[in-house]
Every structure is written in structure tokens, then in C-alpha cells.
Amino acid sequence: MSRLGSIGLTGGIGSGKSSVARVLVECGAALVDTDAIARSLTVPGGAAIPAIAQAFGNDMIGADGALDRDRMRAQVFADPGAKARLEAILHPMIGAEATRQAAAAGERVVVFDVPLLAESGRWRHRVDRILVVDCPEDTQCRRVVQRSGWSEAAVRAVIAQQATRSSRRAIADAVIFNDGITPQALAGEVRALWALWTKGGSSAVKQ
């Protein structure tokens, strides 16, 4: 079996994907966080700000020069065309920066943290393995409400825009079910999977 070079990590909002990513980094992986890249593109002076302002108007840019995320989120949810226009701006920039960061990782296994991996279609051919972090929708809602202060309705609206649990699980080489376990137990599962994959073992059995 050829050396493991990359892992695509995904999961719905509130699934605990970031916790899994941290453990993978502790194991020696290099993390390419596409959400973090997207945020860096839309801060004051970010590379995507001029194109966003041109496509959506200056009203989408806050007084500080950053993308008005709440306003954009509302427009994207209300208008699929707006979502497509925003993705047409951001996705090529995110892809280019992800490629640059991956190249800088040297010989380390690269973990691409991609929230919309299942939706994008192209990531299956870019990574060697796909790891999905899964949990019930009610658990997702509870976690996001607690950490962000969003309303439950707002969280469920985001979940409705994302791939279904079943569609994510269908593309997975392994699934970690992150519900009703301690952070220590979660970390143990991640480390066990890392050891299996980096030693050339077959994919873990999906749960």
C-alpha cells in the first residue's frame, strides 16, 4: 500500500471536527483548515474583499473593512444564486491557498479540514482517505447554541444547508461517532485510527 499522504476531514457544524483535527495535529499531521483560509480572505484587507464588494455591493462590507458575515449569511440562505456567486469568488482562492499550505507541509500527512467536503465533490479525488465526524442533529444544535449564542432555529437552518449525515457517511473511509463520549475517549479513537492508517492498514470499519 502506498504511503498515506492526505486525509479529508469533514463533519456537520457542531460535530466536534475541530477537536478531532487538534488530535491529528498532535499525532504529527499538518492541518490545512479551509474555514480558516476563508476567514483570512474576508478580514479587513483580505484578498477576496474587492471581488465581494464588486459582486454584492459595499453594503456587504462592514465599517471595519471585513465581510459582514451575518448579512452575507442571511443573503446566501435566502438566495441560492448569491451562494453560487460567493463560492465562485472564494473557492478558487481557498483552493490555491490550501495547495500552497499542503506543499509547505513537507513529508507530513496533510489533513484537509473541509466542512463542505461532501458537497464539493472534487475532494474525494484530492485526498487518500476521508474521515467523517458524526453526531445526532440535536447534539449539533446543543453544542453550537452553547458556544455561539445562536438560536436553535439559526443552527438548524445551517444544518439544513449542509450535506445530510447519511451522505457524509457514504463517502467516508472511517466515521468517528462523537456523542456521549469524553474528550479523552474521542482522542483515543482518533489516535487509534491514525496509527492504523499511517502504518498502512485498511480503513476502519464505519460505525
Describe this structure in words.
The protein has 207 residues and is of the alpha/beta class. It has two domains: 1-29 and 108-207, 3-Layer(aba) Sandwich (Rossmann fold); 40-107, no CATH class. It is 53% helix and 12% strand. It is built from ten helices and five strands, in the order βαβααααβαβαααβα. The chain has helices at 17-27, 34-41, 49-56, 69-78, 80-103, 117-120, 137-148, 152-161, 165-171, 183-198; strands spanning 6-11, 30-33, 110-113, 129-134, 174-177. The chain has a five-stranded parallel sheet with strand order 2-3-1-4-5, sandwiched between helices. The chain is globular and about 50 Å long. 29% of the residues are buried. The model is unreliable at 202-207 (pLDDT under 50).
Q: Biggest sheet, open or closed, and with what strands and sense?
A: 5 strands, parallel
Mean pLDDT: 91
Based on helices, strands and strand pairing, what is the structural class? alpha/beta
Number of domains: 2
Count the beta strands.
5
Low-confidence runs? 202-207
Strand portion: 5-15%
CATH architecture of the largest domain: 3-Layer(aba) Sandwich
CATH topology of the largest domain: Rossmann fold
Question: Order of strands across the biggest sheet?
Answer: 2-3-1-4-5
N-to-C order of helices and strands: EHEHHHHEHEHHHEH
Annotation keywords:
207 residues; alpha/beta; Rossmann fold; 2 domains; five-stranded parallel beta sheet; 10 helices; 53% helix; disordered C terminus
